[in-house]
Amino acid sequence: MNKKTQRLNQLISLLRIQETMQVKELAEQIQVSEMTIRRDLNELEADHIIERTHGKATFLKNNLLPIYENIDSIYSLSSASNTMNQEKDRIAQYAATLVEPGDVIILDNGSTTDKISDYLPNIDITVVCYNLNIAVKLPKKEKIKIILAGGYFHPSDQMFESSEGIQFLKTIRAHKLFISASGVHQTLGMTCAHNFEVLVKKASLESSLKKILVADSSKFGTVKTVFFSSMDDLDMIITDTGLSSEWTEIIHTKEIELVVV
């Protein structure tokens, strides 16, 4: 994704959440000049995505979005698994080294957490999950105990979700949570693609001692539709070498342990 397309993604995501924002505020959020934002807004206005009035931009709710790369695309685990594949592989390999004998861990839904299951050592640990792909892979490692939080199956990302499953997750006490995010923003926090993910992620966060975000560098600065948690809830972030120096500074300022692989 080129820089312009990424900005258009960010602008649309921000405006979908806030509905109306000032040009100055948008420039600050995306960290570019107001002149650049105005040019991007002119393009979005020409495509009838936003309306501009007196230094502000307003998202038009009933528009038909043109096909910008990756804007509001339907998330699927299979398509996500084919993007930033090598980076996710390195992140997953490192994450698996953090697991120790006797650990209870939660593997969140996502293409990177899916890969972690491939690299988990065959040792005496308990893995709590709610993803079909992960649940199917783990029995190959006979020493690993598996707990599946079930419910309604969402085929697009192979996830199980239900009120009963959420209540069950709240009874779990895990040493480590490996959590995913579709977007990570300095002020708007961590976001995901679907509403049904939110309560599951929140329950997993509440039930875990150490909260570890596994996310490739393309997720940072991106905002998706649904907020689920602040970055301040994290203890560690594992990402790849594509992370910008600006984001490195942001993470260090928040006193979150950062591992770049």
Largest sheet entry: 7 strands, parallel
Number of spatially distinct domains: 2
Terminal-residue CA separation: 21 Å
Shape: elongated
Percentage of residues in strands: 15-25%
Low-confidence stretches: 69-74
What radius of gyration results from the CA coordinates? 19 Å
CATH class of the largest domain: Alpha Beta
How many distinct beta strands? Answer: 15
**How much helical structure, as a percent, in the residues?**
25-40%
Q: What is the CATH topology of the largest domain?
A: Rossmann fold
Give the averaged pLDDT, no decimals.
Answer: 89
Describe this structure in words.
This protein is α/β, with parallel strands linked by helices and 261 residues long. The protein folds into two domains: 3-59, Winged helix-like DNA-binding domain superfamily/Winged helix DNA-binding domain (Arc Repressor Mutant, subunit A, Orthogonal Bundle); 77-260, Rossmann fold. Helices cover 37% and strands 23% of the residues. The chain contains ten helices and 15 strands. The strands form four sheets. The chain has a seven-stranded parallel beta sheet with strand order 6-5-4-9-12-14-15, with helices on both faces. It has a three-stranded antiparallel beta sheet with strand order 1-3-2. Strands 10-11-13 form a three-stranded antiparallel beta sheet, with helices on one face. Helix 6 links the parallel strand 4 and strand 5 (126-129).
